[in-house]
Amino acid sequence: MRMPWPEYFMNITYLVSGRSTCLRRKVGAVAVKGKRILATGYNGAPQGMPHCLDIGCLRQQMGIPSGQRHEICRGLHAEQNVILQAAVHGIHIQGAELYCTTHPCVLCAKMLINCGIKHIYYVEYYPDELAESMLHEAGVIVERLNFSPLLPKLKAEN
Predict the structure, then answer these.
(1) What is the pLDDT of residues 117-156, one digit of tens each?
(2) Which residue among 7, 71, 79, 124 is the active-site one?
(3) Residues 6 or more apart from 113 whose CB is under 8 A from it?
(4) d(CA 119, CA 66)
(5) 31 beta partners
(6) Are the CB atoms for 126 and 104 separated by under 8 Å?
(7) What is the C-alpha to C-alpha distance for residues 118 and 141, in angstroms, rounded to an integer?
(8) Is 97 one of the catalytic residues?
């Protein structure tokens, strides 16, 4: 029996998350349209800049809880990197599906809505009621998959 498409793309998404340099949460994202991968992204510092993996986590040093004060972070979110990679390479992601290891935060949700992402698949819950509400209001289908990756999940160091 062949692996179903959502499981196939989510396995790839977890593989992408292995490139993350975040010390708190390793996240991967993959934009797909017509069963074709358009762009991938993981969370980490902008290219050419030191990563938290190398210099430590500013949010952790300041005692900022998960889900708060996103602006105090060196890293971009995986969803943001998918959007940026698509833009840099001239790839249209409007109407695409997004596979993401974790439910998007409200900042990413707003960007994904404006990019025209139509369907988001995720595995790990992230408590952000505003993100959930805005995605629903925008008509984006959000689906949590009951899923275990083929490869063991790469853990954040903390």
Answers:
(1) 999 999 999 989 999 999 999 999 999 999 887 765 555 5
(2) 79
(3) 134, 135, 138, 140
(4) 25
(5) 39, 98
(6) yes
(7) 6
(8) no
